[in-house]
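Researcher: Here's the sequence for the chain we discussed earlier.
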Amino acid sequence: MPDNDMLDRLIHTAVRTDDDVVDLVTALLERPITRQCWVLFLDERAVPISFVMPISDLPWQPDEHVEDFAALAADVVHQLAAAEVVLVWERPGESRLVPVDWEWVDACECALREQNVRIRAQVAVHTGGTAIVSLDDADEAPGGPVALAS
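Model: Thanks. This is the structure I predict for it:
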């Protein structure tokens, strides 16, 4: 059960650092339950907007529908007057992102950029904890996916 006092404080506080992003995501998603993506929206002051978009029916690998996902996110950004988004990759089990997860990180980064949607961060929530992920992490992984620090 989420800590409601902590969550209430976090949803009214600007998300200025990566630690702030991790704290917000941790308060929203205590533990991973299913493989899905969450989109969180931040206003021009980097304060979370009280709207969260879970996407649970994404295919295993990114396909032509990534552009549809990005267009939907862009439409919601416009409707909410959001300035940026946080993508949260919920992954029960593994404390490592596997190659298909990195495909999603990359595909969404590209598709959202094409839609002029600014990504504040991409975050993985796994059984071992919560961590910011970036494509730089994937590039630095010697021989495989990166283990995520919680």
